[in-house]
Amino acid sequence: DVKVTQSSRYLVKRTGEKVFLECVQDMDHENMFWYRQDPGLGLRLIYFSYDVKMKEKGDIPEGYSVSREKKERFSLILESASTNQTSMYLCASSPVQGAGSHSPLHFGNGTRLTVT
Amino acid sequence: AQKITQTQPGMFVQEKEAVTLDCTYDTSDPSYGLFWYKQPSSGEMIFLIYQGSYDQQNATEGRYSLNFQKARKSANLVISASQLGDSAMYFCAMRGGRGSTLGRLYFGRGTQLTVWP
Predict the structure, then answer these.
(1) 17-76 in B: which are within 8 Å (CB) of A?
(2) B33/A102 touch (CB, cutoff 8 Å), yes or no
(3) pLDDT tens, A74-105?
(4) In whole angstroms, what is the distance from residue A72 CA to residue B31 CA?
(5) Which residue among B33, B47, B107 sits closest to A100, beta carbon to beta carbon?
(6) Helix (H) or strand (E) holding B84
(7) pLDDT at B99 over 70
(8) Which of A35, A48, B3, B117 is the most buried (most CB within 10 A)?
(9) Is B94 exposed, middle or buried (0-12, 13-18, 19+ CB in 10 A)?
(10) Contact B100 A56 (CB under 8 A)
């Protein structure tokens, strides 16, 4: 089974802090993703990466950056945390594929971040 | 742009009954895939079922089936014989796009399903 591990389940940070959310996958997947989940808004893509050192902005990249130095690890960085970044963050991975591919995204268990 | 719409914020169903969760999508790509995920209160995202745009038959996985109507751009999830453990948030998602955006999923806002005894 594919395993996607997020380093923290719950995190509480103060406004202005630099925050790192870590994600590791063990299936040699090329693609990795960071989504944010808020009630009533579903999952929104922040950033994704299709190869080491490659990254693409998703739909809501403002206030975030990412790092992918190794294939198995994809980090989400909040340079200066703000209260409106309080949310559930979900990491996912998948092999490289075409638009019609049946391969699902494999998700981690999520990190619930609270910024006070 | 790809778009997924789930119009039912909440649904209620009695145990052992069937329930349909609605999902419509919008895309101009000829090739795409449609997915349903379940998210229990514990938070993990569980993949349920997939339908490809060129698949001739509706997908089925155990008690889950996907009512795919391509002309209407709808991909409704049908859960038969509901169980209390089916109570969860359900997300419809679509894969499509071109180039480097291949592989990402676009999600709807979700439907909270509650199964009562």
Answers:
(1) 29, 31-33, 35, 37, 42-45, 47, 50, 52-54
(2) yes
(3) 999 999 999 999 999 999 999 877 655 778 89
(4) 29
(5) B33
(6) none
(7) no
(8) A35
(9) buried
(10) yes
